[in-house]
Amino acid sequence: MKIIKNAFNNSCRRMVYRQAGFTLVELMVALVIGLLIILGAGQLFLMGFQTFRQTELLSNKQAALTFATELLIRDIRRSDNGAVAWNDSSRTLTVEFDSSGGGDGCNSGQRVERTYSLSSSSTPQEGFSLLLTQTCNGAGGNTEPVVSAFASGGFEVDDSGGDSGIYIVTFCLMSEPGNTECDNNSEFDFRAVNRSQAVTAP
């Protein structure tokens, strides 16, 4: 009876001893599984970060496009008959209208002249800027950047339909930071109608 008890106690001790830790193979398997989980989480984080940057870039492009388009189309609409001029050599658009004394920076009744053009220099992150020069009765002439993220040569106006009051404004935005070349996928056309010209056109 004692022999059987001793044998049972010895086998229990051996079992307890064997389960007291991990073997080298078990540790290596656990390390490999842990590394796979860390690599997967890192890849997921990287993809999330890249998606966030692309979304931010698209959001900036959309904001730039919306703001510049609204500003230009509004000015073309309210300009006087024949007071919209695109200079192809200097790549500038000049719009004239009488101030209503609102938020255009001039006193009521003054002649407002606005000239739009692209900046001559760019930055890798911001690209080229759309510049606005405004005068009131020929005085002033302050030039301010309106919005950035434009590609090289990213501002053009087709005034071939100007007699009918129809102008096609083309914007080309940066496709990604650091690339200021105009990409066809980042080119957008907008039509602006000058009301007074459209009404008087034959």
Automatic annotation (TrEMBL):
Know the name of this protein?
Answer: Prepilin-type N-terminal cleavage/methylation domain-containing protein
**Sorted alphabetically, which SUPFAM superfamilies does this protein's record hold?**
Pili subunits
Pfam families attached here?
N_methyl
Could you list the residue ranges that cross the membrane? Answer: 21-46
Q: Which UniProt keywords apply?
A: Membrane, Transmembrane, Transmembrane helix
Query: Record's superkingdom?
Result: Bacteria
Keyword flag Glycoprotein: no
